[in-house]
Design a protein that fits this description.
The chain has a single domain, classed as 2-Layer Sandwich (Alpha-Beta Plaits), CATH 3.30.70. About 40% of the residues lie in helices and about 15% in strands. The chain contains nine helices and six strands. Strands 1, 2, 3, 4, 5 and 6 form a six-stranded mixed β-sheet that branches. Helix 1 crosses helix 2. The termini are far apart.
Amino acid sequence: MEAFLPTVIYEDWFVAFIDVLGFSELIKRSESKDEAGDKAVEKITSYWRAIYQALRRFESVNGQTSMFYLAASDSLVLAIPSKAINGSELESLRELCIAVGSIQWDMAIHGIWMRGGISQGPCCIDRTRNQIVGPAFLKAYELENKRAKFPRVILDTKMIFNFGYESKTDIILAINKIKLASPTTTWNTDVLFLWPDPQRKIPVHIEEDYPLFIDYLSPWKIEENHSIIEVIVELLIKEIYLVPDYENCAGLPTT
């Protein structure tokens, strides 16, 4: 029996810890045998489907199943070995961000908001037992719990210097400019939110509060029709979560 006992061996991973906001209330409402209960069940089902679709996207684009995931009620963990994609840390981080961003925008349409953190570091993951432990996981959890603040997924700022960059803009531009060669990708636009350069004279409506986070609305920003963004904004207004005006900050057309 002892031969089958797990052993903790750390390897370098990118880890995302995500909290699904308001999920507990959804679970409670899902017990009701009425329209509200049916809608809650529909939203929960959409959540599981979004995770599945994000993983399928990753597999179809990269031809591998290296991404680990663990979903437990309102908590979601996604992780990828730091050099899983072409031996590149930057590309591997981008792929994890795309997976997370895909789930974010799938859920936003249904009025489900996510807050989380992404870190890099030592981690032990046992796929067979669905277990994860290590400093990278703990840091991702702390980022979500203490720093994320709004419904968004932020990245550990230490990665700026760990990757050898001098500023947040350098790493944002580096990640955003990577274009995946596969025609099956569904994300060929910015991955991280790029704060406006003061030299561009774009009006900034909010204070820059955190340098790095996933721009999950990016695929829709490049479309002339911003109707989907408008739907998401309307849904956000109905919620209790305080959300900065990032879209105006990015210079999108305003009404």
